Amino acid sequence: MEQEALIRRNLWLDPRDGETRFEDFAEEWLETVSPRLELNTIAKYRSFLDNQLLPQWNAWPLVAIFNGYVEIERWLSELHEEFAESSVSSYFALFSTILNGAVRARMIPANPCNGVRVTNGEFDTERLVATPAQALRAAMRLYELGLGKSGFVLCLMDVYTGARWGELVGQQRHEYDAERRGIEIRTPLKEVAGKVYKGGRKSDDHHSDGQKRPPTRRGNSRPKKGRTKTPAGSRFVALPPGIAVLYEELMDSHRDPFVLSTPEGHPWRRSNFRIRFWRPAWDGNELDDVGAGERRPPILPTFTFHEGRHTHATWLTEDGIPEVARRARLGQKMKGIARVYDHVTPAMVNQILDALEERWLRSLASLYPGERAKLVAWFPHLRSRRLEPGPGAHRHFIAI
């Protein structure tokens, strides 16, 4: 009678469904949701399942996990001993998401992950913020490490646009607006299992002339695969004049479809760039280091490419840029009622470009004579630049 009452109220769960193994349900869940996920998200979920979730829970029936609160807590404690807190949070989030699916599939009555505390309340890692002079010197070092103009401009684009890694290295020629002097960020480059994808397609599938994809029956709608992290991430980012000139000069120096490419013209792999070039540029090296040709003092040790995004945001805050303009440039949406009523104006965009250009000019003025001579040899147009400080200050020229 009790079972019949539960059935009538649509509350009855078949006990046989609860005996489904976690591995079987997890694999079916991933196969079902994969068509809606980005390739890198699928790869991430696959890695989490194979390395963290299935070794612990593969043979467990779903109903046993539902009744296994203590075992879940023990598993979390073991993860915290081996992995960073942010990683543990990611593993547990996927575990909880899969179990939510089991609840909706009426295999278990509730998610046992609800209410489980994942974090230890650790302090957030303090982010480093580079100065314009440090960014310029790191860019020069990347030039000298064999990357030439591409490495130089990539470093400066990092701190002067605040764009993410994939948004920059995925830039193609047709995505630069020569009239407005800025880049369109629509389909960033994504790396999955050693292969790079642009717009959901392998990078070597793109037209060699860098033209846009042919129109589809879906019209101008944004492709699901390969899109930006969030809808707000699809944006136009104007470049300050000094950086725009360098970017255009880089485009004129080669005919590869990806503007910020390797010296061989291929798309960058993040780990390869970080280990071989980014870390030596910022961390420096000693004469006895392997492969060290000369000693290079550190600029800002451990500074990461993503911290260039934090640096850009901090610069804009220091320069008094309104929050709505800062968030729009970084590809973030405003929170609360400000999302409805606050809007970016041309005056705000000009304020950003003026502030960034002033930082660029001041970084040029900070170079030592030997550094200036080297920079002029690479970029002759920099031989004479005018530095314009803020209102009320005296204008003067810097010759480098």
TrEMBL record:
Residue stretches of biased makeup (Basic and acidic residues): 201-212
Protein name: Phage integrase family protein
GO annotation, biological process: DNA integration; DNA recombination
Keywords on record: DNA integration, DNA recombination, DNA-binding
Residue ranges annotated for the Core-binding (CB) domain, each copy included: 20-103
A Pfam family hit: Phage_int_SAM_3
PANTHER family given in the database record: PROPHAGE INTEGRASE, PROPHAGE INTEGRASE INTS-RELATED
Record-annotated Tyr recombinase domain positions: 123-354
Region (Disordered): 196-234
Basic residues composition bias: residue spans: 214-228
Record GO terms (molecular function): DNA binding
Family to which the UniProt record says this protein belongs: Belongs to the 'phage' integrase family.
